[in-house]
Amino acid sequence: MSITLIGFDADDTLWHSESHFALTEDRFQAMVRPWSSPDVTAERLLNQERANLEIFGYGVKGFVLSMIETAIEVSENAIPVAAIEQIIQWGKEMMAHPVELLDGVETVIDQLNGNYRTVLITKGDLFHQESKIAESGLADRFDHIEILSEKSPDTYRAVLHRCGGTPATQFVMVGNSVRSDVLPVIEIGGHGVHVPYQVTWGHEVVADPPADADWHQLPSLLDLPKLVARLSA
Domain range spanning residue 29? Predict the structure, then answer.
């Protein structure tokens, strides 16, 4: 069946995001270096983020709270109040950081819009995602926008239902995360397209992605129109 609907992830697919988290984590590791090595800090922070996902969800706010908890843990309560204030300030700076589109994003979306319906499917903090979408200037380029708390087979099925009951076989999802943008989509019978970003959050890393499933990896988003045309042929 021909492709009729294309889904786009937002963070690190349409605009830069994880690089800001990585920079802040580097600063955090330097801050707690008197009590913990960078490797140990990174592991403890990732574990804390994973434990907090069901409570705080994805995004900067959960990241900041996880850093604070990790700082208290590794320092055995010795972290000074000024350091906690600095972590909170880093979070505010991340929330206020301007949206920077990746190369070719507008061109690719415009090329596809003439022949396919497009939907923006992102996850994370509702307020921050709404503000980034508005600031990006891309909202009017999509037929539909979804902000999810999690990306799973069930949430993708719900999105397709809200997009006019599009069959999964006619749906392509493109994003930087195999875990979130590829695996749930191919599980429901859709097409997953992975476009790697320069930095990948540890939680999104998949050690052994399936080799025989219906998914594709592209070096650049600019290669997407040709792939979609081939899938539709």
Answer: 18-96
Overall domain count for the chain: 2
Q: Give 6's contacts (C-beta < 8 A, 6+ positions apart).
A: 112, 116, 117, 118, 119, 171, 172, 173, 174, 224, 228
DSSP state letters, 136-177: HT-GGG-SEEEEES---HHHHHHHHHHTTS--GGGEEEEES-
Task: List Cβ neighbours of 115 (8 Å cut-off, separation of 6 or more).
Answer: none
Tens digit of each residue's pLDDT (9 = 90 or more) over 8-59: 999 999 999 999 999 999 999 999 999 999 999 999 999 999 999 989 999 9
* Residue-wise pLDDT tens digits, 55-114: 999 999 999 999 999 999 999 999 999 999 999 999 999 999 999 999 999 999 999 998
Residue type, 71: A
pTM higher than 0.85, yes or no? yes
Same domain, 152 and 226: yes
Q: What are phi and psi of 146, to 5 degrees?
A: -125, 130
Determine contact, residues 147/130, Cβ cutoff 8 Å.
Answer: yes
Considering the domain architecture, whether residues 111 and 169 belong to the same structural domain is answered as yes
CATH code for position 138: 3.40.50.1000
Question: Which CATH number is 32's domain given?
Answer: 1.10.150.240
CA atoms within 13 A on the CB side of 35: 17
